[in-house]
Structures are given as C-alpha cells and as structure tokens.
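Incident log, structure service

09:12 report received: a user says their structure output differs between two submissions of the same chain.
09:20 pulled the input from the user's history:
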Amino acid sequence: MPAANYSVITADVVDSRLVEGFREKRDAKLAEVTRLHTDSALVSTPYTITAWDEFQVVLTRPEFTARAILDLRRIFFPMELWIAVGIGSATGLDLGPVNVNAGGEAFERAREAADRLKTVSPKSRALTSFESGNEIFDAIANTIYELHDALLEGRTEKQWEAINMQMEAGRQDITADRLDRDASTISRNLKRAFHWQSLDTVNAMEKIIRAYF
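09:34 re-ran on a clean worker, output below:
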C-alpha cells in the first residue's frame, strides 16, 4: 500500500524586522489561524514557530492547502508571507513538535520550495511555491499561484477588511451591515480585490490536488 501523502506548509514573514512589535503580532495572528484551522479540522499538528519569522504546519489532507494559504494571507495582512508547500510522505507527526521530531519527503520538499522563493527572479516576484516530486503538478500549481499572487499586489486595508468579513458572514448584505458601508461599496471592494477569483483558485486547486494525490 503506498505511503500517505501529507502537505506541509512553511511560511516566512517577509521583512519581519520592519514590523513594530513583531513578536506580539506574530503570536496573535498564529493563535487566530490555529483556532480557525483546528476548529475546521484543516491541520493535523499545531502551527509551530521554527524560527523568529518562520512557522510550519501539517495539514490533515493535501487538498486543504489552498484554503490554508488564503486564510494565512488574509489573517496575516498587512504582513506579507512567503508560503512554501511540500507534498509527500511524513513521519513522526505524533511525537511532539514538528520541528523536532517530524521528517520525511513533505518537510524536505517544503524546504526546497522555501529556498526557491527567496531566489530573486527577474520575471516575477513569487510569494507561493509548491514542491511535490511530480513535475507536471508542480508546473500547474506554481503557474496558477504565480498568476494568483500577482492579483494580491495593491490590495488595500479596506479590501482585506471586506474580504475577511465576507469570509465570515458569507453574504454581502451582512458584510455591508457589519462594516457599516453601502452594499455597493462592499461589492466594489470585493471585485477590485479579485476576491471571487481567489475563491475560484481555492476551489480549482482543491480539485487538482485531489486528482494528483
């Protein structure tokens, strides 16, 4: 029987030294995303700080990766993240902190993807990288996210605020009411932030990952 595949996310806060009160803000945002992903059963290990500005998690199923990426980006804003994803086998997940006892392909590949993100490219500024050992899947996933991440450039604080409330409320009229804005303003903010395209990316990536793994 083939070994189970896991998805490991290693995230790095870009220019963390420029964030005032970084430790407190990092810990608060990690606590928020941990609660969300634990309650929705997305993670099989707690989010673990592996360095000052780096943290790691193992997802319960690889197809949850795109949902986790979206949540990390919206919850950590205005901080910017490099998000590296490794998919493959993993061991030692039940032995304590993942940065101490866990290992395997998924962790090694997440590190490869993280190292690649920090290599400056003259073509584009990548924020997300996948490494799975499957060349075709990696080409698909990395191309999709190269395009998707370009849509994140220029999102404003009000647009992210509308996105976060819309993700919680699920309806634009409720979002408008809670934020005390016109429904047309909320609609415009979501459209200009390419929110619906982000959700389409999540849905498409879930299907693609499920098909490959």
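09:41 both user submissions now match this output. Likely a transient worker issue. Closing.
09:42 reviewer note: The mean pLDDT is 93. The beta strands are 6-13, 48-51, 54-59, 81-88, 128-131.
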